[in-house]
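Input/output pair, single chain:
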Amino acid sequence: MMKMMILAPRRRDLSHAEFRRYVTEVHGPLVQSVPEVARVIRRYHYNFPIHGATDTAFHHPSASHLDIVTQGWFDSRAAQLENMREPRYLEIVRPDEARFADTANAVMHYTAEHSVVEGPATGIKVFYFRRRRAGLSRAEFQMQWKARAPEVLGSNPAFGRVASRYVQNHTLPESDHPGGSSDKFFDVIDELFIHAPGALAALGDDRGAIARMAACEGELLDASRTRALVTETIVNIR
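Output:
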């Protein structure tokens, strides 16, 4: 299974409310209305930023330039690319994207989803967008992050009270993700499923756990690139 993730800002002439309404009430139903497009999408979710919610656990800067993280699950990258070549996708769905999104500044990631901590999905999640430090290959960074981040998070006594699930989305290798070496892409996009936006602050109460996470990030990440986004999930295709 391949997971497509599109990070996009809204068109500047739309308010946040207008943007969200258009995506959920117009674009989402439009995608579902084209059978040859919808039938190969296994799941399709929209994640919208929650106004005023920030990373109160680790205090990473907000990805304030983003207004949506769209997620689509496909059997393979080839299936997704074939879907985007469908004549009725190009005729009906593709033109509609420019009616709500700043498509010139949208960035698509092809990822492999790794469920690190199993549990129920909640409607609230935090995305952490992470880029490796210089000197590490994408594969090296992903291998180390997959092993070490869960240990650090699991050492925080508040983790089980705050989060129900933890997923890492690893950007595919360059052979499957042309142009992926560009620094506009991230190497890992973490998803932390939480019970409520306000609960996140409890992770910051254990200063030792926060210091351990900062040390791990310092060793593996270009920390200046890490951004966080607290979102609400809207399911279009389950």
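The two ends are 15 Å apart (CA to CA). The beta strands are 2-8, 43-49, 68-74, 107-117, 124-130, 163-171, 188-194, 227-237.
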